Amino acid sequence: MSRVSTYLNFQGKAEEAFTFYKKVFGTEFTGQFMRFGDVPAPPGAPPMSDADKKKILHLELPIVGGHVLMATDMLESMGQNVRIGNNTTLNLELDSRAEADRLYGMLSEGATEKAPMAEMFWGAYWGVCLDRFGIRWMFNAPLK
Q1: For the whole model, what pTM was predicted?
Q2: Please, which contacts does 112-119 make with residues 24 or more away whose CB atoms are closer than 8 Å?
């Protein structure tokens, strides 16, 4: 079943922020809790510092009404900086690749900062774009 969640990007403060949000909403982390050091480095990538390895790659926390907040840390060492336009993302978790391709195709018209749909190591068909109105969209669908 498809769902929409909100993905928040932090500059090294994802775990601190979500520990606070957990207390505020009285809920528990769900899904995968991944740090950058938990995943294999892409081929040809420079070595990652121990500090970056400890930062959050993915974290989920249900809040109210079934809505889920997700988080990641952006890495300054990779030239990533949090700013308006990349700090909040609407994450569309879709049932099919066809639906992901359709929505990505339409929302990415005139978009900037696009990552085209591709198969990812965590087992999803994934892409992202900052649409022409400055809204960031992420698309996730099953590989099969």
Answers
A1: 0.73
A2: 113/86, 119/143
Q: Report strand pairing: 3-10 vs 68-73.
A: parallel
* Pairing label, strands 88-93, 68-73: unpaired
In the chain, where does DSSP find H-type helix? 14-25, 50-53, 97-107
Instruction: Give the C-alpha separation, 65 to 142, whole Å.
Output: 24
Tokens encoding 139:
């698309």
The pair of three-digit structure tokens given for residue 120, joined into one six-digit string: 């990812």
What are the pLDDT digits (tens) for 102-138?
999 999 999 988 999 999 988 899 999 998 878 889 9
Q: Which residues contact 140 (CB under 8 A, 6 or more apart)?
A: 91, 92, 93, 94, 100, 124, 125, 126
Determine the residue type at 79.
G
Q: Which helix (H) or strand (E) holds 140?
A: strand 136-142
The burial class, CB within 10 Å (0-12 / 13-18 / 19+), for 62 is: middle
